[in-house]
Amino acid sequence: MSYKDATLSPQERVQHLLAQMTTDEKIGQLVQPFGWKMFTKNEDGSITLTEAFQQDVREGRIGALYAALRADPWTEVTLETGLSPREGAEALNTIQQYTMEHSRLGIPIMFGEECSHGHMAIGATVYPVPLLAASTWNPELYERMCAAVALETRSQGGVATYSPVLDIVRDPRWGRTEETYGEDPYLAAQLAVSAVRGLQGESLAAPDRVIATLKHFAGYGASEGGRNGAPVHMGLRELHEIDLLPFRKAVEAGAASVMTAYNEIDGVPCTSNDYLLDEVLRKQWGFAGFVITDASAMNMLMQDHGHNVVETGEQATAISLSAGIDLEMSGYMFSRYLSAALEQGLVHMEQLDRAAGRVLDMKFKLGLFDRPYVNPQIAEQVIHSQAHIDLAREVAREGMILLKNDAELLPLPATASGRIAVIGPNANKPYNQLGDYTSPQPAGKIVTPLEGIRAHLAAAGQEERLLYAPGCRIKDGSLEGIPYALEVAAQADTIVLVLGGSSARDFGEGTIDLRTGQSLVHESEESDMESGEGIDRVDLTLAGAQLELFRQLHGLGKPIIIVYINGRPVVERYIDEQADAIIEAWYPGQEGGHALADILFGDVNPSGRLTLSVPRHVGQLPIYYNARATRGKRYLEMDLTPAYPFGYGLSYTRFQYSEPVIERATIDIASIAKPTTPAYADTLTEVSIQITNIGQRAGHEVVQLYITDVVASTTRPAKQLKGFHKIHLQPGETQTVTFPITAEHLEMLDRNLERMIEPGEFRLQLGSHSAEGKTILLTVKA
């Protein structure tokens, strides 16, 4: 069989294989059921395949499996019933071996796994959520994190991950805000490229790389009212300039897969949108990978299922396949209805061959036909290695953001004798430190803020300085824990109050006695979850009794350091005004407690910067720094300035900016290459600025470049991020940062949505965040 000849190209092997496949076998390559339902675990850690799965394999009806190693309350896979890293690798080998030996043509399974912030499997390293990783403004660090995730995933046999999430957030009430990089397309594009490089590397066939799946295509973060999967009202200009930019850049970087979004855009569901999936993705961008649906998204096309654009399953599969869908995630539409759709003439065999061929092409590129198995010993060695634990801590401490530091309360003195009261619902709840899409965790793996602070004090022989009380729960409005919290705080000199939200599903973690701080187990206890997929809010205030807890603690007159652990911004003006210091920690992952202690005690100078504008009031939404210049300026009650602007973050030192200098202040438009030529990426001029550390501590600064097209033929954003550099300076040190200016920095879309540059003035702003900086003009002459 020539398709087994590894000397042939993947395309040649695909054509030889398709020629031997039946219609049912081709349809089977488009089918990806729930992987964890295909087997049961035995007492010795091995697995037994279900009879149904074995039959489907023998009949060629399965091409991929979704999340075979996923463990969480939704899958009902627990620490006890799930698989260890070694067992997971052995299990996927068992599945793959049966498939290779019992399917007619020996076509391997493609295993797709969830890896938003670490492989969602038991034992894997749990990194900070993407929102925190983006807040590092360090693409190189994020690439290392993605490479580590790829290694852990591939070592067990997973070959595709459903990340990165490239949705641009327009309303942070949306529960999936934590999974994104924030509100800016340029920053998201840089991180998207890092994710693709980190996950895919130089070759998908490498034993430490996996497919990157760009999602959700497209507009998913701009849904009506911040509601998950709600309609999106957006013109093509905004779609291309904002939401599609990160996808285009990731495709140019070589991304191998794209996932469609649940939402519709202007009445057309993304799952059946041929403009997006064929015209833009394939024809304009030259995408050569495969397109996968989100879970059960094709079902939503049918009458009474959501979008209601077709009546039957046959019609739903037909419009999806015709638009460009190649693989169905965890649905049953292709397996049930595609054969009949072919018989009815709703789709044609050429379209089925195209989709099946794309999936098979990726299997050949992954090397699955030639090397279908993994070494369980390697999985045991690399998963949750010390190097990966250290990396999780590094990312967490680079992404935490110091929002306020009155009277330089922070960092706390390392050798002081004063007592510290750690209080709050997120002070010692392990699962509340993690984002959604997290597997069950063994006791002691997740370092909470309380544990991180305790470890830091213990290392100095000062553990007796530490006090603790939970105070309240995340969503519960009960005030019963506040008296005990006040009693504890009264004994302290400084209060660290850890508030925020939770994306923790019901892991059976139990709860905490608010009056004593002791752990309890109540199976019926309501979940803390107020963020995550499908958990959207009408407000951005703190839930439950958290604000009241702060008010009463504030009444003690003691310094209060607020630490927010959460998946979306918190809008609490009273806390903003009255707290002495505020740290935004997002969901910092398993090493978050250590990272927080590193920052609180000054071992690490905070360098995180916001990737979202934090409003002063939810009524300001949508609020983002790159709004159109024509937008209304204020409400009756307040203007549109945020509480904390995009790009903002403080340091324990201070940085001084010189006046910027531009190499050439005037450019002849005739000298600018066309967008379709390689020369379009050439440097037209350079702008430079000197930054000096005028403080007493070494630290990182994120130097940011924003560009404003002063006058244009279509309305333009007030400013747009077009460059950034994260630099490290010793006290008194000066560094010159230079930004090359290319045609892409100055481009816009004309009325036909073609990329072009208009003559005129461009204002270049260089500074520490979007709301301030030094400016200089660049002129493009006709």
From TrEMBL:
Superkingdom in the source lineage: Bacteria
Alphabetically ordered keywords of this record: Glycosidase, Hydrolase, Signal
SMART domains the UniProt entry points to: Fn3_like (SM01217)
InterPro entries xrefs: BXL, Fn3-like, GH, Glyco_hydro_3_AS, Glyco_hydro_3_C, Glyco_hydro_3_C_sf, Glyco_hydro_3_N, Glyco_hydro_3_N_sf
Sample GO molecular function, one term: hydrolase activity
SUPFAM superfamilies: (Trans)glycosidases, Beta-D-glucan exohydrolase, C-terminal domain
Domain Fibronectin type III-like: residue ranges: 701-770
Family: Belongs to the glycosyl hydrolase 3 family.
Protein name per UniProt: Glycoside hydrolase family 3 N-terminal domain-containing protein
